[in-house]
Amino acid sequence: MGKHIRTINKRGLTRRKEVACGECQTSCQSACKTSCTVGNQVCLKEKKN
Amino acid sequence: MIHCFSVRGTRLVLDAHSQMLHEVDELVWALLCGGFTESGEAVRALGARYPAAEIAAALAEIEELRAQELLFAPDPHAGYEPPPPQVKALCLNVAHHCNLACRYCFAGAPETGEQLMTPEVARRAVDFLVTRSGGRRHVEIDFFGGEPLLNFPVIAETVAYARTRAAAAGKEVGFTVTTNGLLLTPEVRRFLLANRVNVVLSLDGRPEVHDRLRCTAGGRGSYRTVLPRIRQFVSDWEAWDGPRGYYYLRGTFTRHNLDFADDFRYLVGLGFTNISLEPVVALPDADYALREEDLPRVHREYERLADIYLELVRENAAVRFFHFELDLDEGSCLPKRLSGCGAGHAYLAVDAGGDLYPCHQFIGRREFVLGSVFAGELRSDLVESFRHAHVYSKEGCTDCWAKFLCSGGCHAHAVLESGSLLRPSRLGCATMRSRLQAALYVQAVNRMNS
């Protein structure tokens, strides 16, 4: 952490560019049902690992 | 690509391509907003306010993050080609019929009249899903309508059949039902809990907000009837001792309740913890449709919602607002963010007669029929047009900071507003960006406080 910049999250997308297992829940299948949002999807593969 | 935004005095910078979120001080904010990269130029512009050594140190921090690709990271997938089509989820419109007549419902009344899906159509849909999902292990079925619980026997039968079929194919199937709550009888409640069905319950918020648009066929408000039934389900859910699905209250806000943060507070006050509020999807001439002129108010309201959310979470850590639940570390991988909802190739909807559509919002629009659960082939031209509608092909997405959080937005909303899959809804985009900023702010505050 720098004096001027505090990074909030630990890793972002950098290590998750190519997971692509296709196992996580379909985004509009959940509570939204009319607004595609993927940011709050959980990665099932990473949760298991 | 970076996006600098400030909420309640907290200065945040999102790096769109790496999805790293940074909180910055006033100096870095000035450097990034001014586009300064070189010390001499920055000192000339900002030297009256900051010592030259501080400016150099701040620039060095920026450069360090740039070198690590945590700031100004390159686009990770220019030249993106979507994966081959493979079905993952089906939305079964088991009842194209409803026991309410909500004014904003996109389902409408089908030309063919009210329809209930037969067990045979539902079984064929399950067969279609199991066959077409290839190597995918987790598949999903959503029961939708109309009011799906009007066809509860078919839901019960389909859950049992799908479990058996999926298990034989080495798959797991997840279920969701979206209901207005009227038919949540003791038998139905027990079934949903025992079978780990996720339940999305439609409740818009304050009584007057709910009753204005969620009406009976006779035009009376439904709030007083549905609330006790929804409460009973949630009470059973909380008391359930065993594996269970999730529940969410799902409300719709319109231009009649642009103070929707008060609906969130109201629902939490009733004892509910899992809440989602969505902007209405409507034709522009509807009195309740959001308009361009409402957008500044919607933006401010999401910030107010963030304040209220943070206040309520301090009192009860179980409180959730669906769209603020961004997972900045364990969220979706990049390919998922590019494919979005998968409508038209990974996520399909089945109408009561067995015809397949790109998603539940297209049901009844015959020009979007992809095929049938009774026939083998899908219309490849339509499948391809949906598959190729992504953030690298949609108008305005490539240069938008929100692209890896929204995945190009809702296809149905785009078609409804612009007539084109490749031209996202302007209203939808603006609303989404406001919501995402509030969500990022909430995550930043939570992390800074922990």
Jot down its keywords.
heterodimer, A: 49 residues, little secondary structure, 1 helix, 10% helix, B: 450 residues, alpha/beta, TIM Barrel, eleven-stranded mixed beta sheet, three-stranded antiparallel beta sheet, 15 helices, 39% helix
Please tell me about this protein's structure:
The complex is a heterodimer of chains A (49) and B (450). With 49 residues, chain A is largely without helices or strands. Chain A has a domain at 24-49. Chain A is built from 1 helix and 1 strand; from the N terminus they run βα. Chain A has one helix at 44-48, and one strand at 5-7. Chain B has 450 residues and is of the alpha/beta class. Chain B has 3 domains: 2-74; 89-324, Aldolase class I (TIM Barrel, Alpha-Beta Barrel); 389-450. Helices cover 39% and strands 16% of the residues of chain B. Chain B has helices spanning 26-34, 39-46, 52-67, 119-132, 152-168, 186-194, 207-213, 223-239, 261-269, 295-315, 334-339, 380-387, 403-406, 411-418, 426-449; strands spanning 2-7, 10-15, 20-24, 89-96, 115-116, 138-145, 172-179, 198-202, 247-253, 274-279, 320-321, 347-350, 355-357, 371-372. In chain B, strands 4, 5, 6, 7, 8, 9, 10, 11, 12, 13 and 14 form an 11-stranded mixed beta sheet that branches. A 3-stranded antiparallel beta sheet of chain B has the order 1-2-3, with helices on both faces. In chain B, a hairpin with a 4-residue loop joins strand 2 and strand 3. Chain B is globular and about 75 Å long. The two termini of chain B are 28 Å apart. At the A-B interface, strand 1 and helix 1 of A face strand 3, helix 3, strand 6, strand 7 and strand 9 of B.
